[in-house]
Amino acid sequence: MSRFDVYLDQAGEPTRMGQTQVDERAGRTVRCEFTYDTAYLARPGRLALDPATPVSDSRWVSAELPRGLADAGPDGWGRSLLLRANRGRAMAPSELLLAVDDTSRIGALRVRVGEHWESSGEVRVPALVQLAELQQAASQVETDTDEPDAVRRLVGGGSASLGGMRPKASVLTDEGRLAVAKFSSHRDEITVIAWEKVCLDLAATAGIPVPENHLLWISGQPVLVLDRFDRTTSGHRLPYLSAFAIAEVVDAASGDYLDIGEALSELDIADLPATLRQLWRRAAFNVAMRNTDDHLKNHAILWHGDGWRLSPAFDLTPDPVGGTSRATQIAGQDSPGSETRGLAELAVEFGISTAEQRAILDEILTATSTWPGHATGLGIPGAEIRTLQRPLDEAHSRLATMVGRLDG
Q1: pLDDT digits (tens, 9 = 90+) for 58-89
Q2: What is the spatial distance between Cα 237 and Cα 216, in angstroms, rounded to a whole number?
Q3: For a Cys staple, 342 with which of 52, 80, 213, 330, CB 3.0–4.6 Å?
Q4: Cα–Cα distance, 210 to 203 (Å, whole number)
């Protein structure tokens, strides 16, 4: 049985939100109980832990950590680092949550036991000048089962907070902002990191906000450095919820853009019609660039004081396998040949007019049509460009056909 307090940190001021009590056996959660603090209940404008755990004086009981709280824990890469740091010993979800360092924890939730913010130890987030060493450590961790020094370096640098399976590390920019450095993986079939930069640049041109980012080449390998969008320019934390935390779905890879839209409509969204249009734009962009790994943990919302807003888009990469089904369906459609039908139905559900659809698709097609030249300019090998030429050409052709139907 473990107990810990949950705080919400806004504008640098942590407020006790409530207490969590977890019963875990054999590395899994048996029972989790969350109770909001009485003083928190009286606060104006208080935020809920997540939609399934609304603010009330009820005692919320479940068989797992609340999803909003799980968002503040490790996932994928961070989880693997912590397990390696503990020599493969099974770690229960709450233990993993408490092991993440407080400095770089995702979002604005913080946890503490007694008087101390819980973390994996004294954390010193490294500077950009140490990227080559971090790149080497990440490669060693991914390919070698016994590299304790590399694991300690990454965990001690605040990298255990990071999700996704790709090797990465927390870093500080030259201006002192918290950022993420993403590295190549030995499993990559294409130069994924450089392709992600292509997608981010084209998304920005297509009217989709993306994190501040820049691509570096170190030892012949690309490294993508992205500012943490869950921090303000002054370093304050922003409340964060993944789409998985707000949608009523079984797991992060079994959702639909309709699920995200429905969840958004039930939240305090700053501008719901504009938010749904932006979500539809992102779905269409993912179709154009064959980004099929758009699972619900790759979508998120941030609290900005006047309501929830979509976070900048992230983890955008093209799939080199032409017929891959997408992780998040578009109005029930997940195959390349049916995605535009899904987009048409999604537009109706989101209240997006024919004229708006056409304008958005025109912007996306104009922006993404430049992808071959952009990829070449970033140093991506010609063989990879040729590999992606057919699936991306086919995606653009289908979207262009959709525009033609809208015109008719």
Answers
A1: 999 999 999 999 999 998 899 999 988 887 77
A2: 27
A3: 330
A4: 7
Single pTM value for the model:
0.95
Q: 194 Cβ partners below 8 Å, 6+ apart?
A: 215, 222, 224, 375, 378, 379, 380
Contact 118, 112 (CB under 8 A): yes
Q: Hey, what domains does the chain have and what are their CATH numbers?
A: 2-114 (no CATH), 128-227 (3.30.200.120), 240-407 (1.10.1070.20)
What is the per-residue pLDDT for 121?
54
Element (H, E) at 110: strand 109-113
Residue 268, CB-side half-sphere exposure with 13 Å CA sphere = 12
Q: Kindly compute the dihedral angle of the four CA atoms of residues 49, 52, 53, 59, in this order, to the nearest 10 degrees.
A: -160
pLDDT at 20 over 60: yes
How many angstroms from the chain centroid is the CA of residue 40? 28
> Between the CA atoms of 144, 149, 154 and 155, what dihedral angle is there, to the nearest 10 degrees?
110
Q: What is the DSSP string of 123-156?
A: --PPBGGGHHHHHHHHHHHHH-S--HHHHHHHHH
- Give 115-154 pLDDT, tens digit per residue: 777 664 566 899 998 999 999 999 999 887 667 899 988 9
Instruction: State which amino acid sits at residue 374.
Output: H
Phi, psi of 252 (to 5 degrees): -70, -20
Mean pLDDT of the chain: 93
The H helix count followed by the E strand count for the chain is 14, 13
Helix, strand or coil for residue 18? strand
Q: Alpha-carbon distance 320 to 336, whole Å? A: 13
User: How confident is the model over 311-338, as pLDDT tens digits?
Assistant: 999 999 999 987 899 999 999 999 999 9
Using CA atoms, how far apart are residues 34 and 5, in angstroms rounded to an integer?
10
* Residue 276 to residue 194: CA distance in whole angstroms: 29
Residue 165 amino acid letter: M
